[in-house]
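Retro notes (design track)

What went well: tokenization of the new backbones is finally stable.
What didn't: we kept losing track of which sequence belonged to which structure.
Fix going forward: every design gets posted as structure first, then sequence, in one message. First example under the new rule, 492 residues:
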């Protein structure tokens, strides 16, 4: 049996920083792109390389961050950083915690909680290079047009990496270097432990720099090398909301492109927003201006859009969803929804069913082939198969205090403007007349009528609105204009 490939000894995710430029009450790493927090992206990438242990270092907004981390990745070790600042101190704290039971040996990877586009594949490449070359430290770098603010990669005459200089500590000549430190590294655990013990806070920022480990590792005779990535997005952090939006747009561009390569037609990639957590089948068609969020899934041959937002919605094979706002709903195979439809949680539309224009639904199960075609509300209800709900029907489910259920059978035909005053049950094959207010159960096969008889007061308009256009037309139509007001009642 081939043993499952095990990853590095540990990944340490740094997430103690304050993120003040976000100007937010929400901790920076909890801001989202692609429907997932930045720390969520970081944890997934870290997990994907299958580390034996995963630690995350927290400090700023500690409790909020720790609570989220333990939900996202319950087995992640949460480590608190003390008041000594710097990335070196953060890693030292993590290493001490990881070493508590047994000293780590092998590869330790360091990543950031605010670099959301970093992929597991690039991390795996970093680790593979590090281990293949038997390096003491391997740093992930990128060459940028504007390297301002970043730590610069120092290389010797032969091109080998000799160290990293922080921007604030750099000379003018060093500031011309465009190869930057991403802050993502693979270390040999023993080298890292040893070097961190020697890192001081004697620098422009009075911080313990993790970057000092590179120079110290070299002095100790270790090999230091770099993996240079051409994909700068993967090493870019979000410090403010402008960068957050740019990273979000790039992540979406990548997600949309990946789905197109997997066989999804996307008519307008620029206005199609797909969360990282969404799944789509081959031959799905996405029309312009749509947002697919959360656990939304769309099955083969379904068409979504234009102008549709779906969150946690399951769209069945061949279904059509047009100009719809939906969440927590299930749309059956071959069903049709929209335009202008609001699906709320608990909506389950059966195969080949229909929820048409200007309908709002909530907590309703609609059987196969049943249609709610236009203008209405269906909530806390159960509708059987092949039932036709007329235009403007409403389930009056709320008595001001409690919600009640409406149960409508199969093969039912309801007249326009029928109101179901719940709790109420309508049997199979029953009909209702236009404007019926169903307060009592309707037996199977019955016709339910509840409206009062219509009363026409003849000549009312000429008598009460004399001189109006309506009165003139009425007089012309009735010719016998001397008629006095009289009443008739239908059905008497
Ligand atoms: C750091 C690097 C720099 C690199 C840059 C890439 C050091 C000394 N410098 O810069 O070479 O080009 O990242 O973005 O490492 N953090 C902690 N605890 C701390 C300080 C930071 O956990 O005490 C975390 C932050 O939350 C963040 C990451 O470490 O996720 C980097 O911190 P940040 O201050 O953004 O980076 P710099 O120190 O400016
Ligand atoms: Ca800093």
């Amino acid at each position: 049996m081939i043993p499952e490939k095990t990853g590095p000894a540990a990944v340490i995710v740094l997430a103690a920083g304050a993120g003040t430029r976000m100007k937010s009450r929400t901790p920076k790493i909890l801001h989202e792109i692609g429907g997932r927090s930045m720390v969520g992206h970081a944890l997934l990438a870290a997990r994907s390389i299958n580390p034996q242990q995963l630690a995350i270092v927290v400090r700023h907004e500690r409790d909020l961050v720790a609570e989220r981390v333990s939900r996202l990745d319950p087995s992640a070790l949460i480590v608190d950083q003390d008041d000594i600042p710097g990335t070196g101190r953060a890693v030292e704290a993590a290493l001490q915690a990881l070493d508590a039971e047994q000293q780590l040996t092998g590869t330790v990877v360091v990543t950031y909680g605010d670099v959301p586009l970093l992929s597991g594949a690039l991390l795996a490449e970093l680790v593979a290079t590090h281990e293949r070359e038997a390096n003491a430290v391997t740093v992930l770098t990128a060459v940028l047009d504007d390297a301002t603010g970043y730590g610069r990669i120092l290389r010797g005459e032969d091109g080998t990496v000799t160290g990293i200089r922080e921007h604030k500590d750099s000379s003018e000549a060093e500031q011309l270097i465009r190869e930057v430190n991403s802050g993502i590294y693979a270390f040999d655990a023993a080298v890292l432990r040893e070097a961190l013990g020697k890192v001081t806070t004697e620098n422009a920022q009075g911080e313990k720099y993790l970057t000092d480990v590179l120079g110290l590792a070299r002095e100790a005779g270790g090999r230091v090398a770099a993996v240079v990535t051409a994909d700068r997005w993967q090493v870019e952090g979000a410090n403010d909301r402008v960068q957050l939006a740019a990273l979000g747009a790039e992540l979406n561009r990548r997600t949309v492109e990946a789905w197109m390569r997997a066989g999804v037609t996307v008519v307008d990639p620029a206005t199609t927003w797909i969360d990282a957590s969404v799944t789509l089948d081959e031959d799905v068609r996405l029309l312009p201006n749509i947002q697919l969020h959360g656990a939304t899934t769309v099955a083969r041959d379904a068409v979504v859009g234009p102008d549709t937002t779906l969150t946690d919605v399951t769209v069945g094979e061949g279904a059509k969803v047009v100009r719809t706002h939906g969440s927590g709903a299930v749309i059956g195979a071959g069903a049709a929804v929209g335009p202008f439809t609001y699906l709320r949680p608990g909506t389950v539309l059966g195969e080949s069913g229909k929820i048409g224009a200007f309908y709002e639904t909530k907590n309703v199960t609609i059987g196969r082939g049943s249609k709610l075609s236009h203008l209405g509300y269906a909530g806390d209800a159960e509708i059987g198969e092949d039932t036709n709900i007329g235009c403007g029907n409403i389930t009056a489910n709320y008595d001001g205090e409690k919600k009640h259920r409406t149960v409508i059978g199969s093969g039912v035909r309801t007249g326009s403007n029928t109101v179901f005053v719940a709790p109420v049950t309508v049997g199979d094959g029953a009909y209702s007349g236009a404007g019926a207010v169903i307060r009592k159960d309707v037996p199977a096969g019955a016709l339910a009528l509840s409206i009062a008889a219509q009363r026409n007061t003849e000549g009312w308009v000429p008598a009460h609105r004399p001189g109006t256009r309506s009165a003139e037309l009425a007089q012309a139509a009735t010719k016998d204009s001397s008629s006095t007001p009289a009443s008739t009642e239908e059905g008497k």
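Added context from the reviewer: Residues 241-448 form a domain with the UDP N-Acetylglucosamine Acyltransferase; domain 1 fold (CATH 2.160.10.10).
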